[in-house]
Amino acid sequence: MSRIPGIQDQQVGFIVDRILKVTNKLRGAVPEPLRLMAKIGEDKLKALARVKVSSMVGCVF
Asked: What is the pLDDT of residues 4-22, one digit of tens each?
């Protein structure tokens, strides 16, 4: 079980709903990492993540 709760079926939009349904049909279940990736984070957190990743790979962007 992950610390961050994944997105629930009632919280998704049309496109994510289609992706989850196709994944469920192909695999029999929706993997937890896919639910976590579907959850949209805050813009501030995304910006911090971009800066951290770029510094880890040596990009000066």
From this structure: 788 888 888 888 889 899 9
